[in-house]
Model the fold of this input.
Amino acid sequence: MTTPNTMRGVLAPVVTPFKSDLSVDKDRLIAHCKWLLSQDCGLAIFGTNSEATSLTMDERFEIIDTLVEVGLDPARMMPGTGCCSLFESIALTKHAVDLGCGGVLMLPPFYYKGVSDEGIYRNFAEIIERIGDNRLRVYLYHFPQMSAVPFSIELVQRLLENFPGIVVGMKDSSGDEDNLVAMINAFPGFGLFAGNETLLLKNMRIGGVGCISATANINPAGIVNLFDFWEADNADDIQNTLDAVRKSVQQFNLISAMKKMIAHYASDPDWNRVRPPLIELDEIQATKLIDDLSLLNFEMPGLKV
Amino acid sequence: MTTPNTMRGVLAPVVTPFKSDLSVDKDRLIAHCKWLLSQDCGLAIFGTNSEATSLTMDERFEIIDTLVEVGLDPARMMPGTGCCSLFESIALTKHAVDLGCGGVLMLPPFYYKGVSDEGIYRNFAEIIERIGDNRLRVYLYHFPQMSAVPFSIELVQRLLENFPGIVVGMKDSSGDEDNLVAMINAFPGFGLFAGNETLLLKNMRIGGVGCISATANINPAGIVNLFDFWEADNADDIQNTLDAVRKSVQQFNLISAMKKMIAHYASDPDWNRVRPPLIELDEIQATKLIDDLSLLNFEMPGLKV
Done:
């Protein structure tokens, strides 16, 4: 099989800043996206770490329209467009295609548990057929810990067979290295993104195309560096350095921790807001986070202050 | 504590019929709601069994507006209004209050797993405070198997203390009898609905107010009969009869099975549609379901043919 036009590299599920009334802070979001692109990091807006499910559908349309309107390249965007509702998935996906997004990252419908492969297949088939646009590029978002709805090998095979060139890849957030290997072995050329940078080197070595990682929001240059030099002699050292940063951040809720980091390194406390049901880090957690990162000489170069 | 104006009785999470293009079939929905009300069964539209999360927000607004416009009593409605997105929860809940609904049944935001009680509390506090309407009556929807986000005793206590007369009850779909008892012991007068009729008699005996059950869609009169006569000598016999019907239905996906039953007993095959990720019963399942129900002499009296 061939996978035309597969996106590659490092993408961040872009964290979404909020104003004091919890509305979306578009100016800060635009600035953060520009900074990520300046580090050669793509924009997986509306990911788990974007608090996408905490955004209304209207907000998601407004955000993506705004980012494109201000001139950010849609080809570098892979918005999350998989909703519980089939018709909301269709509307948001179609809009992303119309705007020229490089791809879409689609969760399965995630409310009902224990659903059949047939049911998930029908969800994606309805979306793809109703949109009916050859520009559509679907990346399946495999994240059983959060969605509780996994993509089996058999299901991926059926989708690839019936929608070649449309279903082109996957973000595998299971953290299961065996699953990465199984997917790439089953589907050579599959556009396989590791779910975070801890498996980036392994993923590149087996034939994957990069990673989509929360922590690309705060360490984009470091992660892109490994993507660029994964064949270099010191690649394992780069991986180890990245892992140390990741380890410091994921002691805590990733979203809250990353927002705290941006607030801290940009001296911009307005970044330190999340929407319920998430909560901000408390003082003790925040201090521990920044202290641990200082020990690693961590910095966020170029972040606007 | 007192719980003013608590709803009581039997409510059905009203199943949602779809046309062949999968759009909402409003005529069949209205007819089904009228039949349920004629059996003295309330309308918990937008429940898990209504495929609520498979509906768009726009569809939910249209449905509730339509039902009220055709003259169905909003005081008998307890729509599900808890979404992943805080602001969608606020919009839908406010609309239900403005229409005069007897209450709302609210899931916690259900995408993020392992969230804190503080985060769930903030979600409900924001909703209640931003709506700021004393007519609001919130029933918490405790369904850890599906939402993966439970309501702890401590969280319920905090909500009741801070929003007395607004947070008034719960649908406990855990199926855990001990949890029902713990809730009613902790909060005497709490408007506690069992999550299905198998615990209806027990719930009434400990001081609960009824049940909200999927199978009230297909056996409303039977379940209402137990609610009306739970103190009668033969109440356990009535419970046993209800349980046998429930057991036949829940061999299969409840939603698909109930739609098949309505299609069968109303001789209306158009009822036999679900939205992905659900799928219809296959022929073998459907035959087994109807055969098992025939052995119980099950009927759906008054259902329009």
In short: The interface with chain B takes residues 22, 48, 53-57, 59, 84-88, 91, 108-113, 115-116, 118-120, 122-123, 126, 145-146, 148-149, 275-279 of chain A (CB under 8 Å). The longest helix of chain A spans residues 117-131. The radius of gyration of chain A is 18 Å. The first strand of chain A starts at residue 9 and ends at 12.
